[in-house]
């Protein structure tokens, strides 16, 4: 068995798919520091299950995924696949080749595969147990592993020796057995609890069952007698009701007659009211019109005042504009004089500039001819230089191509030889794989037959479990719902308790008084001392309004002290209600005359301490509560709007007729808070009792499910093992078929490549000859160009000397020209500035004159307007006199209508008295009808509640032969009462509990037997572990003594078990004595001595129990050259039984390698693996060293 292939994709510095093929013997992986060669070791450790990302030199899982570069984007996942050749069947699996794969995503998920079949990390660990392969074994050894062996931590050291001595698999099985033991004990404890509980329930239930059966017999006899009794009573009530209804009809006819007269008078009153309303409207309109005219007159006075003020302002503006015009004219004259002087200066400066310009042109013409000659010669020189550079580039490129072509020729020849060997090897492998496929197919058929039988058994048990789980999930859901309700009630309870505690909803001043416990005689706010049913809360809150915030005090002094406290601290205003002053003010119910239905007086619908009675009746005693708005309006009309009326929805009809309604923000739920707190407490208690019952039922169901799941797990384990075998067989078949296909593809690929290499070699030789001829031609042309450049440089120097003399004269003239031009430009700017100022002043002058004319025109216009306004004011004053006369006539008409209405109202009151008398008689009859109906309904309700019979069903059961004997009835009831509480459900419950009792008895017995079996298994495992550890530790120790001397060239080394009475948990002591030195503590050894000691132990382990492959990650780095030589020789000897892959930069290690891989980083942060032949490997070794 050996490591055949490692595939990396997206892992750390390997973004693209990278295949590394390994052979038996020693393979060295080399490369410069930071090239990513240790990432290969990390990849092997990671794919074998390393969970600690810090051990892989990272912080979190996403650190092993390629993070991207400036040119290549980051990847979302990484994948590593490790292929092991298992032809010798050292691994307990039927595949001859095993691929372990791990994939991880940047989001944090990770998954494992075995031969491309998804699996658990546990499956991989179990497969590799006792082979030395794994993250805790000795197949991957880096500098950190060396430190672990020599560290003072006995746990880390012990893991290596457990794996080496072959007890890891036993320790793993023992841990599994101990976990099973723990789980089985927990199951037994749970089942025993349930068993005892059921046993305690069974005996009481048996007694209850017998009592329930007797109860049902007596109850049936009682039903027969009592039903007949109820039917007789109902028939008697129906006869009385018929007679009463006749009397009711007579009274209703009288009511209709009185009501008709009443309505006639009410219509007359309404007509008078409408006339009064009309005359009131007219009076109001007249008053409103008079007030409107007065308002207009006042407005006229104001307007006249404003117009007079405007005339004053216009006269002021005329004077100001006249002064401004004089000043502007003077400024324009001054600017014109200055402009004439500046124009003369500008003309002088212009003449001087023209003289200098002529001189500059003369010098510039001479310099232009010389400059053209210089440029022409310089351009010729530069062209020749560019040609030389181009020739050198062409020559260098040709030389590089020639070197590349020579290397390609050598590579093609070497590759052709390698392909011939590979073709022969592939053809042999294809034949072997086809034989394997035939063998796997017969194994697969046997396993499939066994799996089918197990699946049928699994299906039967699983159906039962699913049924129980549905019930279990429902109860779990009910429990969750109950818990959510409790949390919700608790949350609301806390909110309302906190609101009550902090006086939420009260104004600032009220809060401060209630919080101040030093104020004496404060009993609380009115909203705090009353309560009512939820039905009336909205009506009461609307009725009370701001009274809710009033504070009740003992007396006036208490109120006075509280007011002083508020004033002193500037805390706002509060109304106080002293108990000793406020008197009751309650409506007399007998005085209420209305046919509308009302609920009651508000003060009677609240609960309060008796000492607050006067205050409550004062505030609420004159408020009537009515159910609906329609009834409220009717009541208000009938009582002539004398009382305050409030509906259950909070609408208010105020005395006098005004209405208040709509929506309003509640004032902190002051009135309802106490009720809500008690309701939530009650709800929490009820829900908690329900939750307790549900949780008990859930425990019982869990026991049933667990027992069946144990059986399912057993079948599952068998299925899993057989499925695993089929998966392995299928994977082997697929793998073998894939290999045959891959081998065939590779064969074709190698043959095509060989043909292509031959054609490529012929083309490369022709290209080499052509390049050599081109290089000779380039060298000759380069020499000619160089001679011509020297001649041109001499001519260029002569022309440059004459050019410099003329250039100096040209610069002097330019300086003089610049000075004169600066003066000229400044003069032009001044002229431009003054011209703009003159233009601006003319614009201002024109605007000012226009404003002066406008002010004069406005003065005349305002004077005309004053005359018009004065005339209108006088007309309005005359209108007021006429309207006042009209108002007097309207008031006289109103007084006449009022007298007529009072006479009709007196007659209406007489009719009201007759109406009330008839109504009271009718009310008594209706009450009697209601009592008879209520009695009948009570008997019907008893039939439904006690016997679940409707009236029709009960009448159908009436039996004339049954004697209704009250004594017999009482006797039967006494017998039922003597039975006490009867649980009817106990009949069914007893049967169910008895069945569960028998079931759990069997389960308890099975679990007790399982615990005995597990204890026996653990004991056997411990004995095997001790035996294996003793045998292998002695062998490793003997090997260590020999290996230590070989690697150190002398000295002594020994391994000792510290606690021989407990060899499975004991620390292991390492004794080391380098040659020529005394026995030393490990911590006192040098770095090289420590490393060589640890390497000696690891080599001793491999000698005793060879691992299929071993990866060494620069463990020999601290060794000197002499020790490296001994290390390499020993490595060569061990490679006969173990495949070694060494990540190294030491020459001695490379020299003993059979194969070498180089890891480079041609592109930043991206590693690339290249294989080298011996010649290239030697060259790379020399470069690195």
Automatic annotation (TrEMBL):
Signal peptide: none annotated. It comes from the Bacteria. SMART domains: SMC_hinge (SM00968). Residues 520-636 form the SMC hinge domain. The keyword Ribonucleoprotein does not apply. ATP binds at residues 32-39. GO terms for molecular function: ATP binding; ATP hydrolysis activity; DNA binding. Its main location: cytoplasm. It is found in: Cytoplasm. Residues 167-471, 677-704, 733-760, 831-893, 922-960, 990-1038 form a coiled coil. One of its GO terms (biological process) is chromosome segregation. One of its GO terms (cellular component) is cytoplasm. Keywords: ATP-binding, Coiled coil, Cytoplasm, DNA-binding, Nucleotide-binding. Homodimer. NCBIfam families: SMC_prok_B (TIGR02168). Required for chromosome condensation and partitioning. Contains large globular domains required for ATP hydrolysis at each terminus and a third globular domain forming a flexible hinge near the middle of the molecule. These domains are separated by coiled-coil structures. Belongs to the SMC family. This is Chromosome partition protein Smc. It comes from Paraclostridium benzoelyticum. The gene is smc.
